[in-house]
Structures are given as C-alpha cells and as structure tokens.
Design a protein that fits this description.
The protein is α+β, with helices and mostly antiparallel strands. The chain is built from 16 helices and 14 strands. It is globular.
C-alpha cells in the first residue's frame, strides 16, 4: 500500500493507515518518498539504535540560497554521527549537567499556575498556555531576555516546516530567512554572554570545555537554536495532542483527576498515544538487513514513531488511552545515540502543565472542535480551545 502523508483524512487520524502498514510487515518501501518505512516497535527501535544507520547531513541546494539553513544544521549534534556527534553532545551535556534543568522544576510549576490564572473562562490551550510556558521555560534556561522571547516561536515554526513533506518555495524562503535572523540574534546574544556571563546555559555553553576543546561560534549558535526548537516543539504539541486525547477519554480524565499519582504515567501515555514526533529518518552507511529486508547503502529508512507506539505486540489495547499504563516503552523521544537530550525538561513541563490544568477546576471541556496543524512529521494542533464551566 502507498501512504499519502499529505492527505487530509490521514493527517486527521493517521493511525488506521499506519496500523495497516504495520500489518504488512516490519519494513516496507514507499515509492513516493523513496524511503523504507519502519512501522513496528521492534524494527523502529532497531533502526534508531543501529549505528550502521545514521544521520549524515547533506546541504540543501543551491548552497548559496540555503546557506543559513545549511550552516545551522551542519553544526548540530542531531545531524551528525560520531565522532562529531559525540563531541558536540558531550559539550552541551556538560552545560546541562550543571543542574540547570532540575533547578527550574518549582519555577515551571509556578509559571503554569500563573499562566492559567491569567486566562479567562475560555482560552486556547496552545496560544495562551502551552506555547508561553514552553518558550518561557527554555528561554529562561538559555538566558534569552524576556523582551525578546516573542520572537522565538515564529522563527522556530518557520524552520521546522522544512522537515515536513511536500514543502513549497514559500516554506523554504521563510525557513531560510528565519535561520538567518535566528542565527544573527543568537550570535549577538552569545557575544553579550561572553562579555557579561550569567547563570544560564548560553553563558555556560560559551565557556564549557573538554580539555582544550570548546564549541566554535557556529556550533554554539546551532546548539542553542536546536535546544530552543526541540525544547518547546515537543512540549507544546505533546500537551495539545495529549489533552485532546485525555478529554476524549473522560473515564481516564476522571481517573487521573482523582489520583494525582497518575500524572507521570499520564504524561507518558500522552507522548505514546498521539506522538508529537511521528517520523525520524536514518541513512544506511552500508548494505544491511533491517527487519528481514536488505537495505542498500545510501537508502533512507524512516522510523514511524507513532506507528511503533501503537504496536499491539508491545502495548495492550494500543488504541485506548490508559492513564496508568506501565510499563510504557514508547519511542516519543527517540532512542539510541540521538535520544532527546531535553526529555527530562519536557517531562517537567508536561507534568506541571497537566497538574495545573487539573487543579484549575472540577470540570474541563473542549469549547470548540480542535484544529489540526497541516503536518505529519511534527504532529500537533493549531488551536485547542478549552473551557472550565
């Protein structure tokens, strides 16, 4: 079967099609994209962990047009393999290891409550709550001044549209412009932090070393932008997708409302049930066998994370939202070498947001039909209006 990743019905609910794809076999070829699709949990996890399948950045062409986009990605850990990936991730992880994330836990909880208190009886879960919470947290972590934070989400949104299928010249031009402006801003901010360092991650990224090694200027900017983009896209879409799913399962909503000990497992179920990240590609470095199929060197293999997270071989009643599901070995944050470095921060944000929403009132309902964003790779909503009657 050939999957149309841009078809409206598929984007509204891809899981029936992904289920049929999974039933065909662990690995199938998709002629429209020229990729192999890994849809089962075992094979998708194997693709993400197999070091013979990697991330090998290839510049977009023409190079002079796409240079701002190419420079950022060429210097990101996500687009590189060892030894470059090992070096970049190690240096960034040193800054994370200074306790930046954990120290934010009380502030994240307080900010979630403050944002909800500022909303009226009806509000947009994404624009009025999830986005300002996620952007504010990652901006605070990195040391972006409060007055500049409104610029981050538009830049990020323009950039990540490049990862979707069927992009347009307008999408490409907007992404290149966003990369140029974002990089200029972050380079200027890094310069200010060099002159006047603070207790934030950009200041520490400027100074972090491994012996005599340190991040170059381009690597620092690329790393900071990756942290900003990845640090809030998953949280915003994870909360939007998850809350809609929870509201569609009122019994589970009542269950977690009455037992707050289930908040942590509910968050993991949100990430499994309707994954904010649906697809992550790898390229075969050599001819190899994947799921019983020979994949030639140079071929791309796409791990379909949402399909893997609904695999009945791993998850009992996978199409049902279970607030207490345990164990829950979902692939929402990836796996292997490129496992999401910001997963602990995303979990802190999602747990704080869910707790604040549950505390807001005894009832919570959708005020209108949620509006989906027109994308698959990064799956989310454009608007989710809620009301506390």
């Amino acid at each position: 079967m050939d999957v149309d990743f841009a078809e409206a019905g598929f984007l509204a609910d891809p899981y029936p099609v992904l289920g049929r794809l999974r039933e065909r076999g662990p690995l199938t070829f998709h002629p429209a994209t020229g990729r192999w699709l890994a849809s089962g949990h075992a094979v998708a996890g194997a693709v993400l962990r197999d070091r013979r399948l990697g991330r090998f950045w290839r510049d977009e062409t023409p190079g002079d047009v796409f240079e701002p986009f190419n420079t950022l990605h060429r210097n990101q850990m996500m687009e590189n393999e060892p030894p470059v990936h090992t070096r970049l991730r190690g240096l960034v992880a040193k800054a994370f290891a200074r306790g930046h994330v954990e120290r934010l836990r009380p502030a994240v909880a307080a900010e979630a409550v403050r944002l909800l208190n500022e909303t009226g009886g009806e509000f947009d879960l994404l624009a009025d709550f999830a986005e300002p919470l996620a952007v504010g947290v990652i901006a605070e972590l990195l040391g972006v001044p409060a007055g500049d934070r409104h610029r981050l989400r538009p830049w990020s949104a323009a950039m990540v549209r490049m990862y979707e299928m069927g992009r347009t010249p307008e999408t490409e031009a907007a992404a290149v412009q966003a990369c140029r402006e974002f990089a200029e801003y972050m380079g200027d901010l890094a310069g200010r932090k060099t002159a006047e360092p603070g207790d934030d991650m950009i200041s520490h990224l400027v100074s972090v070393r491994d012996g005599s090694d340190r991040l170059s200027g381009e690597e620092l900017v690329a790393s900071a932008i990756l942290l900003l983009n990845a640090g809030h896209e998953a949280s915003v879409n994870g909360l939007g997708n998850g809350m809609v799913a929870l509201l569609e399962h009122p019994g589970e909503l009542a269950r977690v409302r009455s037992d707050r000990g289930l908040v942590a497992t509910t968050v993991e179920e949100m990430l499994r049930y309707d994954s904010p990240s649906q697809l992550f590609t790898r390229t075969a470095a050599i001819d190899l066998e994947v799921g019983g199929v020979t994949v030639p060197a140079g071929a791309e293999v796409a791990a379909l994370l949402g399909a893997a997270n609904r695999d009945p071989a791993v998850f009992a009643r996978p199409d049902r939202f279970d607030a207490g599901r345990a164990p829950n070995p979902h692939l929402g944050f990836g796996a292997g070498l490129h496992f999401c470095l910001g997963a602990p921060l995303a979990r802190i944000e999602l747990r704080a947001a869910l707790t604040a929403l549950l505390d807001r009132g005894p009832r919570m309902e959708l005020a209108a039909e949620p509006v989906r964003s027109p994308g698959f790779v990064l799956r989310g909503y454009a608007a989710v209006r809620l009301i506390f009657p």
